[in-house]
Specification:
Elements (H helix, E strand, L loop, with lengths): L15 H19 L2 E2 L4 E2 L45 E2 L17 E4 L5 E2 L9 E6 L3 E7 L2 E6 L5 E7 L2 E8 L1 E3 L1
């Protein structure tokens, strides 16, 4: 933004055009900023932020699925979470479990019907973590640390898996047998 400086030796009457031009320039810049910053809603949009740290105070949350942040948010470096980390994305349900698993995993929890002899594909994303909750007995095949088959003996048996180098490693399980 360019404004013209008015010197102390300039007369006010001869500087009127300069003053008006300066105010017009400032008004144009504020109008331009209003396209990005909504002070009423407290939102900033349409900008790219490049920084090494973002601090959010007052319990504000970042929703990585909203248009405000973007569909995919990548953090390079450590993330300190001083309160709860809530993974609330679920596919399937107790009354309507999945009879086939997806090729890629965008949810954190999957209710499954292992009687359908499910196949768990390898994840291409190292660190991807999913939880499988069974609604009955059956098997899931795939590449697991320790075997190729997960056997569920009944409903409510669970396993949490984390992917690394296309292998699913068991982080925790209840009632599930790996063979």
């Amino acid at each position: 933004m360019a404004v013209t400086e008015i010197l102390g030796t300039d007369s006010l009457s001869s500087s009127r055009i300069t003053l008006n031009d300066n105010f017009s320039s400032i008004e144009d810049e504020i109008t331009s900023l209003k396209g990005y910053l909504d002070t009423t809603a407290g939102t900033l949009s349409g900008v790219t932020i490049s920084t090494s740290q973002i601090t959010i105070d007052g319990g504000t949350s970042i929703d990585a699925s909203s248009a405000t942040i973007g569909v995919t948010t990548t953090f390079n470096g450590a993330i300190n979470i001083n309160n709860a980390l809530i993974k609330n994305s679920v596919s399937g349900s107790v009354s309507s479990p999945l009879t086939a698993l997806p090729a890629s995993f965008v949810f954190s929890t999957y209710f499954i019907d292992p009687a359908s002899s499910l196949a768990l594909s390898a994840s291409s994303i190292d660190g991807n973590e999913i939880t499988l909750i069974s609604t009955g007995s059956g098997t899931v095949t795939g590449t697991f640390g320790g075997g190729n088959t997960l056997t569920f003996a009944g409903a409510n048996e669970t396993t949490t898996l984390r992917s690394f180098n296309s292998v699913w490693y068991i982080i925790n399980s209840y009632g599930v047998v790996v063979s």
